[in-house]
Amino acid sequence: MRVSFLAIGEEIISGFREEKNIRNSSAYLYSLGFSTYIQLVGDKKEDIKFALKQAENFSDIIICSGGLGSTEDDITRFAVSEYFNVSLEENKEALEYMKEKLKARTGKDNVPDILKIQCLIPAGSKPIFNKSGSAPGFKIEKNQKIFYFLPGVPQEFSEMFQNFVLREIKEKFPHIKSLEEKVFKIFGLTETQIQKYLKDIGIPESVKISYLPSFPEVTIRIIGEKNERFFQFCDKVKEELKNFIYSENDQDNISKVVGKILEKKGFSISTAESLTGGELANLITDTPGSSKYFKGGEIVYSNEAKIRLGVRREVIEKFGAVSYECAEEMAKAVREKYNSDFGLSTTGVAGPDPLEGKPPGLFYVGFSSKNETTAFEFKFNIGRKYTKILCSHLALKILLDKIK
Amino acid sequence: MRVSFLAIGEEIISGFREEKNIRNSSAYLYSLGFSTYIQLVGDKKEDIKFALKQAENFSDIIICSGGLGSTEDDITRFAVSEYFNVSLEENKEALEYMKEKLKARTGKDNVPDILKIQCLIPAGSKPIFNKSGSAPGFKIEKNQKIFYFLPGVPQEFSEMFQNFVLREIKEKFPHIKSLEEKVFKIFGLTETQIQKYLKDIGIPESVKISYLPSFPEVTIRIIGEKNERFFQFCDKVKEELKNFIYSENDQDNISKVVGKILEKKGFSISTAESLTGGELANLITDTPGSSKYFKGGEIVYSNEAKIRLGVRREVIEKFGAVSYECAEEMAKAVREKYNSDFGLSTTGVAGPDPLEGKPPGLFYVGFSSKNETTAFEFKFNIGRKYTKILCSHLALKILLDKIK
Fold this sequence. Notes:
The structure is a homodimer.
Chain A: E1 2-8, H1 10-13, H2 21-31, E2 35-41, H3 45-58, E3 61-65, H4 76-84, E4 88-90, H5 92-106, H6 113-116, E5 120-122, E6 126-128, E7 137-142, E8 145-150, H7 154-172, E9 179-187, H8 191-201, E10 208-214, E11 217-225, H9 228-240, E12 245-247, H10 254-265, E13 269-273, H11 279-285, E14 294-299, H12 303-309, H13 313-319, H14 324-338, E15 342-348, E16 362-368, E17 373-379, H15 384-403
Parallel strand pairs in A: 1-2, 1-3, 3-8, 13-14, 13-15
Antiparallel strand pairs in A: 4-5, 6-7, 7-8, 9-11, 9-12, 10-11, 15-16, 16-17
Helix pairs in contact in A: 3-4, 10-15, 11-15
């Protein structure tokens, strides 16, 4: 099973826009067992026709994105018309659909010329309606090959790919419908480490795994025949990685997962940040509704600010600001000041320069509750920004393990 | 002038890793005036050979990335050997280079077998040394076509592309050397708005523009023949966009630019955040050395926390927490509490739900110095996360305009 993708647009090869339509849909079809081949070309008719030929040589299914709008750069329809040697015709169904949408939105049903152009599609092709935008896509079949042309606007592409293209592909390859899908959100392992775990467990031949890393988390999607081996494999993955899997829901991140538990149990938190400089509070407050459990936080960058928060001067003098002891005092002090159930703190050396004779990448996360105040040491030499991000996630993971 | 790119790797088509090597180098060559064609394929010999053929058909220069490591997935060298019908040979120069690097690092110069594999390159090809990693690249010339094969590790690819491939391309197309490059870092306009400005100014035919958006900033790179028209155009762009260009240095972001001025002038700042929940302090502290001018900050999510900081209760009761008045009091209070030259504050409705009857996306940025305390209103309905990011950048832009 093979599929070709073709993204068309000067904005892609010039770096103007990041190509995500094809990245995501290729990853999805890959996990369904397809070999995928991807081409990206600019807005040149000759280049588009060249790429269409290669795509046709590679596979029976060809999915194209971009160049269907109304500006002079949008030349996909013209290239396609030349490639298949057919004329462009105003498609009645597409025009009707556009009229209805316009009428529903504006009350008027006259379609301006600039939009009418978008209803010009190659003779013999079938329009693909666009729920989220204006330009319709179209589908052409020729010599057992199926070409889909969709707009490049991500939301439109995604909707039409899911609801039209993917549905047709599933019809064409009915065994796909019997596939089962399982998602794990993982924190604390790199893609490479996860891959090693999965290989050690033994990936069944019928199972495909796709990865979506988003530092410092990784989402893995396991797809396979719906049978006992599949479920056994997923169970084993879950068991082996139980310390790292924090959710089985694609839409989650660690801030949301922690937030849900805090809200459900009626707990509140506050934060005292040195190393992370606001990254931790920022991560917490990225979650809608966080004001219900996040009582507030302080960025205590200087020693004076730490002492004003409630860290004892002698602790800093004796152990330094980058220490277990300081992290503990910060977590406890902020918890007490904000009268919250939990306090989290971060202190360390963000770099690039050492601090108090301690190397960049050394840091501490403090945790405090009514019953317990403790701190954890970490060392990752991954640069300032990544250290801040990682430390913030570690703080939430520590909290998660305490409250779940 | 045409160039083909080929990224090889199952990790790319499966979404395991984002493809950036080719995105960036394609954008760069595009701005030098090349038509670029990009292919992405998995780790299958047949697919790689298929793609090499297309690349060769498209252009005289072919740049490939990935599959040169030592694991069983790394099959680029084998596919290439079949494609050109030549054997693989252990390259002495490459092995010698590897030995020296190992010796410098470990004191020993015996190369383990797993690394030796990487020195196997197609007979007749020329090794490209790898300063940042282990696997060498190689260059093959055949029938006036030049193929470059580089490792897929971003840092290694980038270094070898810049220092070897790009240098050779500049030799081959000497007029490139006469091109002039100008970079503008822009905040406050979308790519589309910038494009419109530039079109209105009139882009000379010999000038190419590439865009690198990174929300909410956009970097544009203007490249053209080094002549009066080029400089006039750049001057006009600078003049027209003067309210939006905050730097002409590729490596800058707004946090760095503000930081440099604060440090140079010996000013200090502190932050009081409601809406942004730590995003602003986080942005400030992403810059190395920020502890020199950032005195600290507070995330005053609740009204109680705002009052504890120093906002008068009656201000919140009369105007609400989402108001000019509250933003001003927050900025002033945090400046006084932290004894800093400037105070910045943010308050607003991050969403998705309204607050105090005010809609998501409405927010205020407060600014306070010894001489002036003021606030600015904004309304952007772009979702919670983007609102936080945008608001933080706006706060720094407001500060920048006050201190520059």
